[in-house]
Amino acid sequence: MSRPRDWHPLADRDPVPGDADELARLAQRYRDTADAIRNARDSLDRLSGHEGWNSDAGRSFRREADGTADEVGQAHVRYQRAADGLAAYVRELRGVQDDADSLLRQARRADDDLRVARGRERTAEAAAPDSAEALSLGARRSEVAALEAEIARLATRLRETVVPRWRAAGDRTAAALERIAEIDGLKDSRWDDFVGAMKTLGGWAGRLSAILGVLALACMVVPGLQPFAALFGALAFATGAVALAGSGLAHYENRGSLSDVLWNAVGVLTFGTGRAFTSVARGLGRAAASAAKPAYVTSLRAAGSTRRQARATARQVDWTGTRRIPHGRALRARAAEPVPWVPRPREVAASLSPRGVVGEVVADLRAASAVRAGGQLPSTAPDAVLDVVRGLPAPVRATPEVGAAMRNATIAGRISTGGVAVSTYAGGRELDLPLPPVEAPPVPGSAR
Predict the structure, then answer these.
(1) CB 280 within 8 A of CB 412
(2) Which terminus of the chain has a lower count of CB atoms within 10 Å, N or C?
(3) Rounded Cα distance, 148 and 140, in Å
(4) Using one digit for the tens of pLDDT, what is the confidence trace for 173-221?
(5) Are 330 and 199 found together in one domain?
(6) What are the tens digits of pLDDT across the range 114-126?
(7) Are residues 196 and 175 in the same domain?
(8) Is residue 339 part of a domain?
(9) Around 263, how many Cα atoms within 13 Å sit in the side-chain half-sphere?
């Protein structure tokens, strides 16, 4: 039976909440489980007492069966007592809720009468002096006051009598259930406690990773915030790894879902892939910058300019940010490969190394400090070199070497953003965000 939602004029919400029917069903499930455990214990007792299997294997089985029967019997006691405790609480809860509902019905009737009485009071106040209505004003006011006092009395009775009974019943039941776990001999081992703690820690870490992933994605796409993307991304990766460890251990102990493990793995791996593509995008951007001046001179020479004319024309361009880039020749060679935007295996491994993550965070934070101080973004900051190249004259950007490197850097950067987006989607499930229903395939035997 559903509970009343509107508790006016006694309270703002249900003062004695609880689904007694659902608790009764839970108690019955516990009782059914206890019956099944009792039947299993009886079967083990019969098997352990059977002398027909007279061999070493039979004697070994009977020894194990004796111990197992004892543990099964303890489990039976736990479920039976839990069922009895819940059933007793259901009876108390229903009694308390019936009393509260009765008070609510009385209060609603008094409230209806109060609205009528107030209407009569207003009529008497507006009546002409010496009229019958005016002479009844005192009686009308007394009637209003009496009804208000009645509603207040009912509210006080609910607050000071019924609600304490509801709270005391819940406290007694909770204490009784805790005592069952303490005296039945089935306490969790330290390993069980550790698994439970890791599962809880993994759940919180997954939620934190999702939040940090959203911040990392925002920093990647919002101008001016790119230097902070690596910081939030590194923190999202670290907390995601903790979430993966917690969900993996819980699933291994049959206390967690394989789907959670898969989604946490997706979040960690896509972040790593995103970092690898980010590194490639930066390298290709630096390759475009380091190739800009020599490529421009070469294109001028190919168009018919002499060496002197080409150099004179090139001197008119501001090459700030494109000079003295470390390993520029190697970068240009990489940019000339067939698919330079695809990370190599060693680059993927390097992107996941703690040293690489910390180094990138430090470099980007230094870049942010340089920007705040009015300086120029260093070449290690995200998109910094590409911004420099985009500021060069169109003929420079149109040279084959520079144009190809810029296109490939853009491709790698977009894939990087996509990887972080996938990681953020995986983490968003932890926050119950309104996401499209993409689920990992169910695996038989996996437990939630």
Answers:
(1) yes
(2) N
(3) 12
(4) 888 887 776 655 555 567 777 877 888 888 888 888 778 877 877 776 6
(5) yes
(6) 999 999 999 988 8
(7) no
(8) yes
(9) 24
